[in-house]
Amino acid sequence: xxxxxxxxxxxxxxxxxxxxxxxxxxxxxxxxxxxxxxxxxxxxxxxxxxxxxxxxxxxxxxxxxxxxxxxxxxxxxxxxxxxxxxxxxxxxxxxxxxxxxxxxxxxxxxxxxxxxxxxxxxxxxxxxxxxxxxxxxxxxxxxxxxxxxxxxxxxxxxxxxxxxxxxxxxxxxxxxxxxxxxxxxxxxxxxxxxxxxxxxxxxxxxxxxxxxxxxxxxxxxxxxxxxxxxxxxxxxxxxxxxxxxxxxxxxxxxxxxxxxxxxxxxxxxxxxxxxxxxxxxxxxxxxxxxxxxxxxxxxxxxxxxxxxxxxxxxxxxxxxxxxxxxxxxxxxxxxxxxxxxxxxxxxxxxxxxxxxxxxxxx
Length: 362
Ligand code: PMP
Hints:
The radius of gyration is 21 Å and the shape is globular. α8 (about 170-180) links the parallel β5 and β6. The protein has two domains: about 5-40 and about 265-355, Alpha-Beta Complex (Aspartate Aminotransferase, domain 1), CATH 3.90.1150.10; about 60-260, Aspartate Aminotransferase, domain 2. It has 14 helices and 13 strands. The N and C termini lie far apart (about 60 Å). The chain is about 40% helix and about 15% strand. It has helices at about 5-10, 10-15, 40-50, 65-75, 90-100, 115-125, 140-150, 170-180, 215-220, 235-240, 250-260, 265-285, 310-320, 345-355; strands at about 30, 80-85, 105-110, 125-130, 155-160, 185-190, 210-215, 225-230, 290, 300-305, 320, 325, 335-340. By secondary structure, it is α/β, with parallel strands linked by helices. Bound molecules: 4'-deoxy-4'-aminopyridoxal-5'-phosphate (PMP). The site of 4'-deoxy-4'-aminopyridoxal-5'-phosphate (PMP) has 13 residues, from α5. It is an enzyme of class 2 (transferase).
């Protein structure tokens, strides 16, 4: 290797592989928890009208105030709480790490969980502490989390609610115990909020170490890249200091604000995805050898017969369907694939390719 790279790039960065996104052209895309539905045609035309006359020679509004107001209204964000926008929630995770990193500062989360908590912590020089979930149902091991908090004193704790890649939602009382026991900042990551009925958003002022992170990605706007953090203004004022100027571009600001004014469209899509989730779960469950886990998100984690995950993944790809193979990523995910809930036709194709019978219509 180039000696200069070796001496200048930190060993932990050199040891990494850049984030891999598989080629998906021409495939049914059930790998990335996207909403499979686009906008009704009338809405598309109306949206295009809002783009007419935008001045791309000017920088965007640095704080995205019109968009913030649209978010507050659409998501019923408590008035006294602050809002901070990110280029996807990934950027918010990065801002949190940049704000709280210092020698010895740690990030804690549960495993298996969303990998970017650990990765971005590492980028910022923070050590990661991962507490295993319970093996039978991926619920929190509360005693183990509390013991790790006591032992490691993490500056930053992430809990995804519901969790990715397992799809379950942790017990709310356990979450509260963790918030109340933590000396650090607790981030409840509600990326999958459109697909579940519980949320900490309305409670965010109840503790001075709680912030709630959301994204528009899973709701149906992954292409816009917009995440938002809701929490006590004093916390957000600190995190805002590491935000890059103009992090939310003009097209995203205008398009997201427009979409939020038509949130009913996305709510209807989320309802359709939830109904499909039940049908897909039932169909997967009736395929011999498959063990799908119940989900509060827009994907279903499924255990397949031992040693078969790679072959099933490859077979699905051959059949034109891209899913996520999690086998080998964590001991609790051995023989596991993750299927994003798609349209009824896409889900039927998945079930057929797995050798099952798609759920009947209706
Ligand atoms: N949090 C969780 C739990 C996720 O699963 C994801 C995406 N897979 C994200 C955050 C990041 O979402 P985005 O950057 O698109 O907002």
